Amino acid sequence: MPTNKKNIATIGERLRTLREDLHLSLREVASHIGIDTSLLGKIERNERQPTKEQIKHIAIFFKIDEKILIKELLSDQFAYKIMEEEADIDTLKVAEDKVEYLKANKKK
To answer: CA-CA to 75 of 20 to 30 Å: which in 43, 84, 98, 104?
Structure first.
């Protein structure tokens, strides 16, 4: 029976998969992107989140569009915050409406 599961992963899981698919060690990748090996390990285990500057270096190293990684990072942050606050999906819908409202007011 086929499943319709989306390919969902955290940014840390995505980075680990990219690294492992290329058969690279934590040390090799960390060295190339200019961070400590232990920090990269924490990012991959979702214990820390990368900064935007680190995202930029990661995108360059893996030859990935930086916007894709930023989207992954933001979606992780949203998901963790929703879980932390024990909010429901309606909260995201309200936030979406607010984004549209703020964009419209910014143009004025």
So the answer is: 104
Model confidence pLDDT, tens digit, residues 17-54: 999 999 999 999 999 999 999 999 999 999 999 999 99
- 25 in a domain, yes or no? yes
Structural domain that includes position 72 = 11-107
- Residue 59 maps to a domain: yes
pLDDT at res. 4? 47
Burial of 28: CB neighbours in 10 Å, binned 0-12, 13-18, 19+: middle
Query: pLDDT per residue over 76-97, tens digit each?
Result: 999 999 888 888 889 989 999 9
